[in-house]
Known about the structure:
Elements: E1 6-11, E2 15-20, E3 32-37, H1 39-50, E4 54-57, E5 59-61, H2 64-74, E6 84-86, E7 93-97, E8 106-110, H3 126-130, E9 132-138, H4 139-142, H5 146-161, E10 165-169, H6 179-192, E11 195-199, H7 200-207, H8 215-225, E12 231-234, E13 240-244, E14 247-251, E15 255-256, H9 269-281, H10 287-301, H11 313-329, E16 336-337
Parallel strand pairs: 1-4, 1-9, 2-7, 5-6, 9-10, 10-11, 11-12
Antiparallel strand pairs: 2-3, 7-8, 12-13, 13-14, 15-16
Helix pairs in contact: 1-9, 7-8, 9-10, 10-11
Amino acid sequence: MNTPLYDLVSIGETMLRFSPKHPLRLEQSSELEVHLGGSESNTLVGLARLGLKTAWISRIPNHAMGQQVARGIAMHGVDTQHVVWTDRDRLGLYFYEPGSAPRPGEVIYDRRDSAFANFTATELPTAPLQTARWFHATGISLALGPQSREMMFAARELATTSGAKVSFDFNYRAKLWDMNSAREHTLSWVKDSDLVFFAKRDATAWLQLPLDCENQKVVQNLCDLRNGKPTVITLGAAGAIAACSGACVHVPTIRIDDGGQLSVGRLGGGDAFSAGFLYGFLQDWSLDEALRWGNAMAGIKYSIPGDLPVIHHNEISKYVERLTLATTSGTPTNSLQAGVNR
Length: 342
């Protein structure tokens, strides 16, 4: 393997996200807030802000909005020099209307024929993939069509033949593909990756198990399929569970004292969890410690508007310490449960 320049490299589409100001609906709004939204870049930003060296690969149009996306990611410490710029195609967009009980949130995608959707394997920059310790991928990129899947397979091959390990976040999006297609096209990623993330509801659907199947059975079934390689499942308000080579660890959710206010930034919570877990895992921490950091990252992300985890290392460290003390002492809390639903 070449000398690693990056702790983790990822490929993915980052879009501009437009949302009405709370509590307005999209059709009531005369102005929209603009944020960056991309699962892979969210995770990379989280890792970079914790101190790891990361790089983002994507294909975006070379105009003001595309440059805004790249700058918005780079400002957090992620290396964006390997972005493929194009004078053709368009930038992917999406519109998000936050939910307000009993009405759920709503996402409207406008990403067909985007610059990233037209990213081909022949355009891949090889240097970052050949000098990474880990390559991180998500099911979102695979859902964008055959060309995207071919490009992602080529990227994985470049990375693994150079010695990199692979983490894969299933990250299912029902608006992009159905579960049968997702199961077919992610099978090799789920089986072969060195580390896999699933939400429980998606794991049960992928495994064709009942939704109310016991948590330990779900994670163990996936782990067995993967020949004992580390497997992580988020459980919403119940926290997260991980299995590896017969060992199984569950860490309860972070409880957030929100002062009576609802969480303001639920988008990107699952990506923040992945960043926290990966941060610990890449440093050979125990599954328990890595899960705690994942839960802490997700919990604090819920207090931050936008998709990006604008988080500092010391606040996560203090939060994990506080959680550990509360857990060992049995200290009661009056707080909001903010589990990772991804």
